[in-house]
Structure formats: C-alpha cells, structure tokens
Design brief:
Blueprint (H helix, E strand, L loop, with lengths): L4 H4 L3 H12 L10 E4 L5 H9 L5 E5 L2 H8 L6 E4 L11 E7 L8 H10 L1 E12 L5 H10 L5 H4 L21 H8 L6 E13 L4 H8 L2 H5 L4 H18 L8 E13 L1
Parallel strand pairs: 1-2, 1-4, 2-3, 4-5
Antiparallel strand pairs: 5-7, 6-7
Helix pairs in contact: 2-3, 6-11
Length: 265
C-alpha cells in the first residue's frame, strides 16, 4: 500500500489546518533536534523548519511518494523514509511533532510513553489525531465492509492487530482522560489536552468519498482485487450520498472531531 499525494491534496486546506492549529500551541523549546512523525506532503515540516531554522530537523514518513512531494518544498529538512512504529530518536529531541498519524498505530499505552522517553528535558510532544470513529463516514465504511462479496477478504482488517492497519479495526484513539492518566505522571512540565470538531465545507462530486479516498479508505481497498474494489466503492458511494447530501450552494458538510495534546517532560 502507498499513499497518493494528489488524492490527499484534493482537500489540502482542510487537512493541513489542524496541524497548524497544533503548531501554534508549541512555544519555547530546549536545545536539541526536531522530528516530525508522518510528515506526508510536508506543509507542517516546512513551517517547523522556518520557525526553528538553526535546528537539525528530520521529517519521517513511510511513503516514498509523499516524501517525494514533500521534497519539492525545498525546506531545510532531512526527509527520512522509515516506519514510525519502530523508529526511535537517535538523539534526545526538543520536539516530536505528529499530525494525523499516530491513529494508525495501536497500543498507545506503550507508544506515547516511548515517545516521551525520546525527549530531552523540557522537550515537547505535540500530537493531533482524529477522534472521529463514530462519524457516519467511518461507521458506513465498516457497515459496507461487512456486506457483499468483499466481506470475507476484509474480515481480517477488523482484527485489533491486523497486518494492514485500517479504521475497520477497533478505534485505536482513546478518550482524552485516558491519555491524561497515562502521560500526566511523565509530564513534569504539564500536559494540555483539547478537542475540536471541524465542519469542513467540501467541494466537488462525491466529496466525502473523495475525502475518504485520500486516507482512511486507502488501506481498505488496497487488499481488494479490481472487481471487488469497484463493487465496494460503488456500494459505499451510495450510502455516503444519502448520508451527506450536497447543500444548496453545492458544498458538502463533513463534521470531523480531532484530539490534540501538547506534553512537556
């Protein structure tokens, strides 16, 4: 499976805004290098590099296509193709920043303390993750996956530790108080937690389907052959159209809740 930068960037403004909202809450940093986990096409990496131009900065993603798109920004960044699930900071970090990435990992009760352990004293972990599992766009995807000739092929993706990480498995993102209980004993400098529900105004035909194709739908359809994939997408498109009608001005509204945290050790 690989990501499609062009599909992802169809709604680049909507996808980028939460990361910039997160970055705005990061203030002074101690000495040390900077890292971004899951940099995608690089908009936030560019902003981080511009804000701290004299810091060593590495932006990490496991998609060669997304990194190639990110490298077009000419920002002063070390672009690294790596798996963030096994990555460890080679040097204690002043900042580990991650926007809409860590929801692809499971076992957050060990992932987040591990990331805090990679921070220098007074270092910052800044994370944003979708907490949108019960949104109709997600629920209808799971319901569609359970029906039809593709159901047997997709059944393994419902397992908590599926080899192909997808949002068919149980929601990996916990409630804010759960992260607080895990991280507050380690956060000597404090922890900030908040949620925002964005109401995206999407344009174009089948807008919610096109949104889902950019990220969440990708791992699901990656395991289907052409015939099953086309049938699944047609069925999913039909139920999405009923749930998310276009408004009088042609826009389609998509509510999207996200969880933010800024943790200082």
């Amino acid at each position: 499976m690989d990501w499609n930068p062009q599909q992802y960037l169809k709604f680049d403004r909507e996808r980028q805004r939460p990361g910039f909202d997160l970055l705005a809450q990061v203030d002074d940093l101690p000495p040390g290098p900077l890292y971004e986990l899951g940099c995608g096409t690089g908009p936030h990496a560019g902003a981080i590099a511009a804000r701290w131009p004299d810091r060593p900065f590495t932006a990490i993603d496991n998609s060669a296509k997304m990194l190639a798109e990110a490298a077009k920004t000419n920002a002063k960044v070390n672009w690294l193709n790596a798996d963030i699930e096994t990555w460890r900071a080679p040097e204690k970090a002043a900042l580990i920043f991650s926007n809409a990435t860590l929801q692809w990992l499971t076992h957050h009760e060990t992932v987040f303390p591990r990331l805090l352990a990679d921070l220098a004293p007074h270092g910052v972990l800044a994370v944003q993750m979708p907490r949108n599992f019960e949104n109709p766009s997600q629920r209808l995807m799971r319901e569609t996956a359970r029906k039809g000739p593709w159901a047997a092929t997709l059944e393994p993706l419902f397992e908590p530790d599926s080899v192909v990480p997808s949002m068919l498995r149980p929601d990996p993102v916990s409630a804010p108080h759960v992260y607080y209980d895990w991280l507050s004993p380690l956060a000597k400098g404090g922890i900030e937690l908040w949620e925002t529900e964005y109401v995206h105004q999407l344009t174009g035909e089948n807008a919610v389907l096109e949104w889902m194709r950019g990220t969440t739908l990708n791992p699901v359809v990656s395991v289907l052959n052409d015939t099953l994939r086309d049938g699944f997408i047609d069925a999913y498109k039909e139920v999405l159209a009923a749930e998310f009608p276009r408004r009088a001005d042609g826009k389609t509204l998509l509510k999207f809740r996200r969880l933010f945290m800024v943790v200082r050790v």
